[in-house]
Write a structure and sequence with these properties.
This protein is of the alpha+beta class. The chain contains eight helices and 14 strands. Strand 7 and strand 8 form a beta hairpin. The longest helix has 30 residues, at about 15-45. The protein is globular.
């Protein structure tokens, strides 16, 4: 289902085109919610003390993570599209999660390390997952004002300054470079692994673009980069919203080993396999 069954007349006859329309309307509501969460983050970003804590997995947690989580959880639950799984409230047993057909997957503040460094490369991420597939995603970088969003059948878009309500522009990945061309490859600002460094050596020419948070995936979605190999650990809330955006734009986010799209809530662990983001599969990087 997309909305609560009782909210939709003739639910059993609900057609694909109606779902696309509904997704377009829903993503607009989600955009408002992520911008509100971004406002709360920026209020704290202007303050001298973030009250940084260290979680059990050794990752940082700030007042901004908590404030954004509270806003997102309440607003998304009110939309009645399914339960909410957030990084800051992820201790939901697998026996319960495996019953979910549709739910919200949320990272209230992706790139907390970038937030603490005050470099602006952090995002609010919200995805709607249906049968393991991210069908809607909204990614907001509040310090930069960038809002990326997309939904299955609707397309993908970028707003350059969400607070100024600038017009949304349709986005799509760049044409795949040839084997002798320079590839613009996105790397993590804080997590470049040895495997990543070895991977880029296999290309004839590369231009490495360093970026934090889910913005790395969005750079491929808008054609500002050609490839993003993630050869390190991430969690499902790190990728789902941006995957919805890049897929709606016409790109792919693929399991590194199987070359199949990442799917969500299919196992007890919420860790992702290694993956790669690109316009489409290419013999150039398949063979490196």
């Amino acid at each position: 289902m997309l909305f609560a069954k009782n909210d939709i007349p003739n639910f059993e006859g609900y057609r694909v085109e109606n779902e696309i329309t509904a997704l377009g309307e829903l993503v607009a509501k989600v955009n408002e919610i992520v911008v509100a969460a971004g406002d709360a983050i920026m209020d704290i970003y202007q303050q001298p003390d973030f009250n940084v804590e260290i979680k059990d997995d050794n990752s940082p947690l700030t007042r901004a993570d908590k404030a954004a989580h509270n806003i997102l959880a309440a607003a998304l639950e009110a939309l009645d599209c399914g339960p909410v799984l957030s990084e800051e409230d992820a201790n939901i047993p697998w026996v319960e999660r495996q019953q979910w057909q549709q739910y919200w997957l949320v990272d209230p503040l992706d790139g907390t390390k970038e937030f603490i460094k005050r470099n602006g490369e952090f995002t609010v991420n919200v995805a709607l997952i249906k049968d393991g597939v991210p069908i809607l995603g909204s990614v907001y970088a509040p310090d930069k004002g960038w809002l990326y969003y997309g939904a299955k059948g609707v397309g993908a878009f970028k707003v350059d300054d969400a607070k100024a309500a600038t017009a949304a522009e349709s986005i799509s990945p760049a044409v795949v470079p040839g084997s002798d061309d320079v590839w613009r490859i996105v790397g993590s600002r804080s997590h470049q692994s040895d495997d990543f460094k070895e991977f880029v050596k296999s290309f004839n020419g590369t231009d490495i673009v360093a970026m934090g948070s889910s913005l790395k995936i969005c750079l491929v979605a808008e054609g500002a980069a050609d490839l993003y190999p993630r050869l390190g650990l991430t969690s499902e809330w790190d990728t789902a919203a941006a995957q919805a955006v890049v897929e709606a734009a016409g790109g792919v986010l693929l399991n590194w080993e199987t070359k199949q799209p990442l799917r969500y809530n299919t196992k007890e662990s919420l860790l992702n396999p290694f993956f790669i983001v690109c316009a489409k599969t290419s013999p150039v990087w398949l063979n490196v």
